[in-house]
Structure to design on (240 residues):
């Protein structure tokens, strides 16, 4: 069994250590007996979407985000073709905003998005750095994490997280957050989201197995201390 992970712009869109999401996903897959190839695409590269089974992009500064949008827009058709054939996609932090219809920056300039969904993002002059506890119907456990955003995202009808018990949602405090459509997942949560949330990692692995037509193992591998660390974080954040 072989899978290819495509990591988009890891040199510029990894503001909070998002490279760790790819590293932990690879470790989990290899522990499950899968041979994993990790390919990276920099701004000057043509991303190879044809072979990608999992496509990831993390967060960047606002200016870097627009550069990533410009770079990826040139390959929008190839990206959409990968999505249509079932590749699993995860965009975290402000990379999430690229998937929508547009981003209006703080100066009022409108940047056309990739158009995988109809939502729009409006940048604001208020930055919100805070911890998050999120809840989804896709798996049982809560998700813990951190976000640092200065935007409001409107028009999302299918949020990844139906509610937050801590943190700012797409449009409102403790409201719905993120976006999901088929195998496309996006959230403003930043940093090592998958390192902190092993059930999220397992969910994505099962989606990848399903996309390949593989039968997943009865129990997916558990890395040392990851669930203990998750429990400590969830207890700490839930006490607030």
């Amino acid at each position: 069994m072989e899978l290819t992970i495509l990591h988009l712009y890891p040199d510029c869109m990894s503001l909070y250590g998002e490279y760790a999401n790819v590293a932990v996903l690879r470790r989990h897959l290899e522990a499950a007996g899968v041979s994993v190839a990790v390919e990276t695409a920099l701004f000057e590269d043509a991303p190879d979407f044809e072979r990608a089974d999992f496509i990831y992009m993390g967060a960047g500064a606002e200016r870097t985000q627009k550069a990533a949008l410009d770079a990826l827009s040139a390959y929008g058709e190839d990206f959409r073709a990968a999505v249509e054939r079932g590749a699993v996609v995860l965009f975290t932090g402000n990379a999430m905003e690229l998937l929508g219809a547009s981003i209006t920056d703080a100066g009022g300039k409108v940047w056309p998005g990739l158009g995988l969904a109809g939502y729009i993002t409006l940048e604001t002059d208020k930055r919100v750095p805070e911890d998050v506890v999120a809840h989804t119907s896709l798996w049982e456990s809560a998700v813990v994490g951190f976000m640092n955003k200065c935007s409001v995202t409107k028009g999302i009808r299918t949020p990844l997280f139906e509610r937050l018990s801590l943190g700012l949602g797409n449009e409102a405090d403790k409201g719905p957050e993120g976006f999901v459509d088929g195998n496309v997942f996006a959230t403003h949560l930043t940093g090592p989201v998958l390192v902190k949330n092993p059930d999220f990692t397992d969910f994505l692995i099962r989606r990848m197995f399903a996309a390949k037509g593989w039968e997943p193992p009865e129990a997916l591998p558990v890395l040392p201390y990851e669930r203990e660390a998750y429990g400590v974080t969830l207890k700490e954040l839930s006490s607030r």
Remarks:
- The chain has one domain: 2-96+130-146+159-238.
- The mean pLDDT is 96.
- The longest strand covers residues 120-135.
- Residues 53 and 87 are 5 Å apart (CA to CA).
